[in-house]
């Protein structure tokens, strides 16, 4: 007999939409036999495979545009509408990038001009391969500090100390050899980071960033900002200290700096303080008047020019021993092949840098894409970053990601496309090729001030703590563990510890789901927690059990325990068997509960006759997304236990994927069949009411 289903919606003036549905009560057996039938797929596997590799002009164009996103927008670039904005944005971003590149190079503990190379090649490459229109690619303090720790570990200064005049009592550091070795280490690490990112992109692993939850990333980057500031204290104060790496390196560095506090270089400190106060003031002005300013006031470049002039005019390096940038070679370096023999030692570090770098880029890219109404491709972003790092490493650039401060400048000054990024890289190229020597007297304390001020936004993330305390204690715990572990253990081990803790919180949530008994709201077909809503009331003889979790090996026992606790009826079958006079009875299974004993002759079976009026239990699985073999066995067992005391258990709200898993687990065998599964809780309730009335 053909079944009819009618749904109508009516909206009268001043009234709500009304939903009316009249249909039979379905169970899974009737759905499969009457309502739903699988589509027959006439396409063979070979045909589908051939379709994947079939070439056409449209497919070739789509592949080319996917790999080179610039081809999708450059041919239709609106010159009149976008060019002026991109030029202003590119020049502004380039001016900001000029001092930040050499400043961040201090974190690598290599000559500052290498930071300029990292501000040119990767930015140029990202213009062609990136999908974001607004992020500014280049050096970033957090990534730089992670790489700097690796450089110190693999090329410590102790390996480059040589005796003076053949005496072991007096040694001198061969700084050129130390710098050259660290450049090799960082270049190889960057190569490896690029390879990992490209492989991840080709394998469509753009989803890995979801495992770095926002509280984890914000706690981690705040800890990284702490490391960066601590590493810059010695430049700011003008003291000489050893660079530490590994667990507790931050504490050791602070102790080392303060142990040398009496040797502070006063001119260096005073110049650094003036730069710090000036930059902070400019930052406040730019933020307060950003709507009135055509472009932000370039505080960093002003500091670089003025401090360089003061240093040169007063001969600070010669007369006051203020550390300066030093020699900056003119022109670009020829490509060189990294020393690949170092790769085995750097694989764990490369994975950490690759994932953190990508996560920062995709996070910023998604923010700008959402704001300006376009989309970014996470997999292509991985490929773009991988190419920037891999190709750039042959030109002695270091691993890059997006910079928050420069990206905000590029976006806020009107940047429309990566033409702005291309122009900013050309500004850097001009300095590298023509006028780099001008900045040789630049004091390192000024660069340290630039880095510290640009980290103010990171330290504002401490405001997350009270917000998370009010909204989510678990996310607060992730933030605090990420921050504390990264500060104390170092950024590499700290990141691993934070990820492990975040995964543990997921396991904890699935192992400790919230469970409840549902009741109906009259004349609605809706079901809610009876302990939470006074309008929700239970049907007589029916218990509807809801748990907001899937059922698998880690929580199946807890699921069953909560079910028995909430239903307040514990099924029990005691099997007693006479064995010996010394031990006349052996207990096979027992549960404490109100009971009445019924004895038989040879084998004495003791059943509980339920004092509760419950006749049916409905398991609401609307929130369950998967089940494994352990969970399926636990559910089958509890259904059999309740059946032994004449209480029927049915399942409601099962999605099709979960049903397919139950089929593959051979759940519907023996006494279990598809007629015990219902598409909605209301279907199950009506079925149970009809069964009990017979």
From TrEMBL:
Residues that span the membrane, as ranges: 104-129, 135-152, 185-207, 219-237, 244-262, 268-286, 293-317, 350-370, 382-399, 419-439, 446-462, 477-508
Subcellular localization, as worded in the UniProt entry: Membrane
Gene Ontology cellular-component annotations: membrane
Membrane among keywords: yes
InterPro entries, alphabetized: SLC26A/SulP_dom, SLC26A/SulP_fam, STAS_dom, STAS_dom_sf
Biological process annotations from GO: transmembrane transport
Keywords noted in UniProt: Membrane, Transmembrane, Transmembrane helix
PROSITE patterns: STAS
Membrane topology classification: Multi-pass membrane protein
Domain STAS intervals: 532-688
Domain of life: Eukaryota
PANTHER family according to UniProt: SULFATE TRANSPORTER (PTHR11814)
Protein name: Solute carrier family 26 member 5
Species the sequence originates in: Nothobranchius furzeri (Turquoise killifish)
